[in-house]
Every structure is written in C-alpha cells, then in structure tokens.
Amino acid sequence: MKGANGFFPYDDVLNEERRNDFQEFSAETLNTEEPNDFVQFILAEYIRRNLRFRTCKFCGRYFGTTGNTRADFCDRLIDGSTKTCKEMGSLRLYEKRKMEDPAIREYKRSCKAHNARIRYGIMTREEFNAWSQEARRKRDDCVAGKLPLEEFVAWLDSDRQS
Length: 162
Hints:
With about 160 residues, the protein is mainly alpha-helical. It is built from 6 helices and 2 strands, in the order H-H-E-E-H-H-H-H. The chain has a two-stranded antiparallel sheet.
C-alpha cells in the first residue's frame, strides 16, 4: 500500500504542511527507576481524575470506580471460573442475607433432606410437593412472626426419618 506521494503508507502523516486537519496533542511520559515511582504515578492519576476506590464485596480486593460510584463488585474474573465478581457477587450476598434468618436456614436444610428422599425412593414427587407447599406457608408465617421458630423447627423435624 502506497501513501499520497506514492512512496510510503505513512509519509502523508509526516508531511504536516499538507494536512489541513492537524490537531495538537500532548502525551505524558514517565521515566521511573523504582517500581514505587510507578505506583505513586498511578495513584496521583487516580486522584487527578477524581476516581474512587472501593473494596469488592466478593473478592475483597480494591478496584477503581468511574461512573457508578455505588458499585459493590469489581469486573475481575473469579479464580477457576469464567464469571466475574459482578456477576456472582449479588447472588452470593442475597443467599448470605437469606441464610441469616434461622427460619429460612431450617427450611432449606429440611427441604434438601426431603428432596433426597425422592432420589432414594422413600418419598414420591407428589408427596414432596404437598409437603413443600405446607412448609413454605409455615416458613412465611415464621418469618412474619406469626409462628414461633421452635414450633416451625419441631414441625419440620416431625417426619424426620431415623
């Protein structure tokens, strides 16, 4: 590929007098002798550009925010996964918040045990669905404060297999 004068593809860039749309630009360079100098430069740039640092609630590492300063998760890939902290973080926080409620924690424990009974042939799917519907109703009552936790746990454990 030849340039405007037929010799090199880049010679029209070098001939500034022939270009009418020439714009000025500036570039900063950094000559460092120590790695710490580079870190200081990056931090100074963040401060100059008014960028904020946050701690990722998933991985615990720092990340810079540009537009949405309320972001809780970084865009880094999770080790051994193709998903990012942003993709998995909100789901984990939701699950963690839900598991703090003892009624929901007991419900999930019992639900897993009952689901295992289906796999082992001790319980049919229809029986599980009926139990699950009643358990969800009682769980919601317990979370709302209409049913004491001890009664709910006792009901969940009443049909426990030995």
